[in-house]
Automatic annotation (TrEMBL):
GO MF term set: heme binding; iron ion binding; monooxygenase activity; oxidoreductase activity, acting on paired donors, with incorporation or reduction of molecular oxygen
Protein known as: Cytochrome P450 family 27 subfamily A member 2
Essential cofactor(s): heme
Tagged with keyword Nuclease: no
Keyword terms, alphabetized: Heme, Iron, Metal-binding, Monooxygenase, Oxidoreductase
Top-rank taxon: Eukaryota
Similarity comment: family membership: Belongs to the cytochrome P450 family.
Amino acid sequence: MGESQCAAGQTVLKSHSWQNAPLRAPLNMCSPAAVTRTLRLTVHHGQTLSVALDGFVSGGRRFKSGASRHVGQHFQTTIETAPEKYKTIDDLRGPSLATTVYWLFGKGYSDKSHAMQVEHKKLYGPIWRSRFGPFDVVNVASPELISQVIRQEGRYPVRTELPHWKEYRDMREQAYGLHVDKGLQWYRIRSVLNPKMLKLAEVSVYAPVIHQVVGDLLQRIERLRLRSQDHTTVPDLTAELYKFGFEGISSILFETRLGCLEEEIPKETLKFIAAANDMLTLSETVLFLPLWTRNVLPFWKQFIRAWDDLVNVAQRLIDHKLAQMDAQVLAGKQVEGMYLTYLLSCDKLTLGEVYICITELLLGGVDTTSNTLSWALYLLARDAASQDRLYREITSVCPGRQQPRSEDLSRMPYLKAVIKETLRMYPVVPGNGRLTVDNDVVVDNYWFPKKTQFHLCHYAASHDEGEFVDAERFRPERWLRGDPESYQHHPYSSIPFGVGVRACVGKRVAELEMHFALSRLMQHYEIQPEDGAPTTEPKTRTLLIPSKPINLRFLPRA
Ligand code: HEM
């Protein structure tokens, strides 16, 4: 079986042999490049720590960099000082179990964990410990400390253990996929997914299909606003953008249109949307509850059902594509396609892995872009000057409502700054995780053994007045090079997609979708809040989302 690139960057299938592939990939299916690279990385020099920078200083202690080797962005460096010289997790301050329960349920922070980050940082400083039942977490909430953790994350970083996801996969004898697989297996999968997701030139191939979906979004917005009482207001914009996000990412992943922006949404799509919502909501509940409750409470069964629905929908769409490809090959035709065709034909993933990876990409790619776009429009609607500056930039690069091409985006720095600033203020992933697996680490003069769970408090870091002047104000200018309002930020002060090898695989696709959608919405409409509409606060439901529906007025531009 083989796969090659046609001129347009599309994948052209030469032959097919994916059927009968084992469900979970054996190690020998790793790409040779991944294996070689990994073997090179496993060379150690005595007792090592991977630390942030050459000659990096942690808590006043300097690490010798003489024995270090550059490994990607990490440095393997010999530590000069014995662990016992450092403070330990037991020296960290932080809320007890009772205090945490009081914060969550007494003070009402259960859906405001982003705000709790900020308050706890004020109380305990930029590093503190939280304990909650079996969970013991070290929180870091300054760019410097976040960078120290990430730079020691090891070769194959792990966010957190997901034993209940793994249990489900084992139960159904499915492949593990990106979130459950670890180490070399995770790296092997990422190496296959990355090229056509993260390389700018490759991602540009998706521009036409994204534009089609944006066109449907514009039509839907027009229908909804005309249907409203004042012929301008679109109610619950996030729900509409969710459909856009779903259609956008699935048109890339499945190479087919699902019709989410039509009047009547297909049943299968509604099923997937409901299942994604259920799975994410139940995931935390199931993890917290003791095993015996599974026979008494409905949550575990619901969690399984939600996963079944998710995987089944993705599987049916993939099988449909496979049947099409088969028919074309049998008819002696060349099979052309994009992401799914590439995954199915590259011979590096089993069919079982393709099912799970596509499901995971879909799960990661919908709420994230849709919520970010909702916040961007919400912020622009309340800041006429920024909206005007954005509109002027877009019309100067693409006059007469020309569709922006990928290359036009490089001449739209303000557009990019608007998205960056939106993600700084409302990072859709407000907190991330790192579980140290390879090494003991030192962060801020504390020594942490392997298996320490860190919580990276991105929201608190990107709302810190010390990092961002007027942190609560929407000021896209702060990201513009050469603008009087711009200034140098710590590189880890706002990292909404994460950084390093485990960072978001969908970053480029998400940016392309958001840049195209926002620029074309601006070309067509001036956006305003409803008269007297109060501010909308965010809330956390794993992701940072608006706490109530965002209704905006869309006034057609001349
Ligand atoms: C505004 C848009 C998005 C934001 C802010 C975002 C943010 C993130 C963050 C913070 C992570 C964790 C990174 C880390 O641990 O260092 C992540 C992981 C991930 N994202 Fe995104 N994401 C976005 C859009 C997307 C899209 C469009 C897709 C699908 C195409 C996607 C798929 C994934 C997947 C599969 C992972 C797990 C990667 C791994 O574990 O190897 N994301 N994302």
